[in-house]
Amino acid sequence: MRIALYPGTFDPITLGHIDIIRRAAMLVDRLVIGVAINRDKGPLFSLEERVAMIEAECVGLSKLTGTEIVAHPFENLLIHCAHDVGAQIIIRGLRAVADFEYEFQMVGMNRALDNSVETVFLMADAGHQAIASKLVKEIARLGGDVSKFVTPPVKMALAAKFG
Question: In CATH, what class is 3-127?
């Protein structure tokens, strides 16, 4: 069984994330969405809210692709999370050249820790390259329209947070 781990904070999940999830799900039998518990980032949404958003967004994708897609919170090293869920593959999305430098360093470190886990990069679709959760939150906080960047339920969740 091919199992992949797609990690991130998903605060909130965006159309860019959903695009990567859909495409990754077509490559594996089971896709684990690793929801990082990163207290240093101070997420807008609680872990429970982020997991619930991911699960809601992935139900249709799972049916569409025939791949089991599950959310899995984690607070340990990424490579340890990969071991915990039985993943042989780590999926990473790239939006721009700036992402590559950071991701290149991460791959090197992860391979030094365990070279049996392969990292696969998926380039963001051209229509989603500018989407970043941080920017989506900022637009929503300032009263802008985020409907081009997130699904309607996520847009409503953002509106509820920022009132």
Answer: alpha beta
